[in-house]
Each structure stands twice: as C-alpha cells, then as structure tokens.
Amino acid sequence: MIKFSRLAAAILLSIGMNTISCADEPRPTPSATVFEGTIDSDMPRFENRLETEHFVLKWTNKSNHPPDNIKDPEITRETAEYLEQAWAKYTELFARCPYTAPGKYKIEVVFRDMDCYGVADPPDGPIQLSAGVWNDPKNNGVRRSTSAHELFHKLQYAYGFKTKWNLEKPYRWFTEGTAAWAEVYVWGRVSRAEKVDELFKDTSMDLHEAEDTAMPFWIYFVRGNHEHPNNQLMRKFFEACERLQDENLALNEVIKETYGSVDDFFKAFARDRKRGFWTGPCEAPYKCILGPDGKDIVTEVKDYQRKRSGS
Ligand SMILES: [Zn+2]
C-alpha cells in the first residue's frame, strides 16, 4: 500500500473530495483508494475523554492537523449514547458482547481525520470515526448508522472472525452486508442509500461480489420483508459461523434448517429481488429504511419494481 504523508493527503483532500467513500464503506472512488494509507498514519493526541459503561471515547480540539478536531463535545456525548444503544440491542439479540482487546473491558472510540466514515479494524484496535463527517450537522443520520455499523464489526470479531479464523474472498457481502443489516436493525436507516437500492437497481449484480450493497439479502434471510421478521436467525447464523468457521457452510445450514432447500431459497431471492421484494404498508423497522437524508428508500425500491413489472 502506498503511504502518503498527512500533509499530502490534506492537500489532495482540499481539492474537492467531499463525498469520501471508505476503506470500510466499500465502492471506493479511485481517489479514495489512494487515501487508504491515511488510515494507518499516526493518531493525533487526544486531550478529551468520555467514559461510559462499555466505551472510552477520545477526541481532540487542539490537533496541529485541524481536520482532526471535534469542535462540539456534545457530538461525542451523543455518539456515546448511540453506541450504548447499539450495544444493548446486540447483546439482547445475540446474548454476546462485542469483542474487546485482551485485558480490556471497554471499546476505545477515537475521532480523527480520515478518508471514510468509520473503521473498526484491526480487532484489537479502536473504533475510528471521521471527525469531518461527525462535525457536519447534515450527517446526524450517518452518525447513528455508522456507530452501529462499526460496533457490529466488533460483534463479528466476538464470533472469531479475524480473531480465530479468516475468510476467503469474496466475503464482504457477508462482513459488510451484515454490518449494514445491523444499521437497519438498530436504527431503521443506512449511511448510504446504495446499501438498500443498488441490489434492486442492478438485478444482474452477483450477490457474492456485492459488499455492503448485499444488505437486502440479509433482510430477506431474517424475513424482514414479511410481517414477522425472525432476527434470531442472525444469531443462529453467527453461532454456526463460529462453529464451522465458514460463512457459506453456516448460511446453508441455517437456510436448510429454516426454509428447506438452499437452491430454492436463493432462486426465490433472485426472483423477489426483481419484483415485489417488499409488500404491504410501511412499518418499522424493515419496511421503511431511511437514507442519510432521512428519505425512505423502500418506497423508491417499490417504485422501480412496480415500473419494471408494469413494462
Ligand atoms: Zn464495515
């Protein structure tokens, strides 16, 4: 990976990259790929600290690299609440705590200048959140979704992913897809609209080549497009992942047990993806999913499907 100095990155950043895609949020633009090096660069010094039941948040407003600064400490207090709420929802459904580094009982969360919304990699490292994205009042919805998303990666690590076993590519349809599902599970919204609509717009896209845009598949898996979702299937699936150390074998096992034929399940998904994925009125959480701008994306998806089946 090519390393860029922070100064060079800052200069390049100032040349008009305001919608920056993430190392963690996939689909990087060519420029974002260039910036991957900044993830590993030195941390700023954090003079501020907020400790909650499960998290230690750290930030600065005195960095000699000003884009690191968090101007309003209220933003970090609010984020601490978002993280605690996501923690509560995950531990309730999964009966397991997100992964913490050996000897640590809380997850460190830092705010800094970076080329993406957030990162939760490597497992023993802190959750890193973008100071620039967090400072922008327009991104209120993104703060919620991204906090839940990054914490879900820590939950994946608690099932051994990257801590006891690694996956073979392509696996981001699983790791990013389920983290995007978690955004919807916790908040009924996503940080980028593509996570909901791309799979329906591009119906020939290979599910396994998708990344966080595979998200609707995971809604389908827990029957989130029906009246009575079964979120417990996600827990079953992660327990099977831990046991089998293979997401495909684990998924097949749970599908077989729950729905019968694995082939038929994938065929039905391919068919429903083209027409009538969601039916019925808009109800939280899965029948109404807000994008970063607060608009419901499910309505938009239903419109495509109606037009497509009408033509
Ligand atoms: Zn992610």
Radius of gyration: 19 Å
What share of residues is helical? 40-55%
Instruction: Tell me the fraction of residues in β-strands, as a range.
Output: 5-15%
CATH fold descriptor of the largest domain: Zincin-like
List unreliable stretches of 5+ residues: 1-21, 26-40
Major sheet? 5 strands, mixed
Q: State the strand order across the main sheet.
A: 1-2-3-5-4
Tally of alpha and pi helices:
12
Q: How many distinct domains?
A: 2
Overall pLDDT metric: 88
Query: Which small-molecule species are bound to the chains here?
Result: zinc ion
Give the N-terminus to C-terminus distance in angstroms. 47 Å
Could you give a quick summary of the protein structure above?
The protein has helices at 6-14, 30-34, 74-94, 131-135, 140-158, 172-187, 194-201, 215-221, 232-244, 247-259, 262-274, 297-310, and strands at residues 48-51, 55-59, 107-112, 118-119, 127-130. The protein is of the alpha/beta class.
3D structure, described in words:
There is one protein chain. By secondary structure, the chain is of the alpha/beta class. The protein has 2 domains: 6-158, Zincin-like, CATH 3.30.2010.30; 172-310, no CATH class. It contains 12 helices and 5 strands. The chain has helices at residues 6-14, 30-34, 74-94, 131-135, 140-158, 172-187, 194-201, 215-221, 232-244, 247-259, 262-274, 297-310; strands spanning 48-51, 55-59, 107-112, 118-119, 127-130. It has a 5-stranded mixed β-sheet. β1 (48-51) and β2 (55-59) form a beta hairpin. α3 crosses α5, α5 crosses α6 (172-187) and α6 packs across α8. The longest helix is centred in the first third of the chain and has 21 residues, at 74-94. The protein is globular, with a radius of gyration of 19 Å. Residues 1-21 and 26-40 have low confidence and may be disordered. The chain binds zinc ion (ZN).
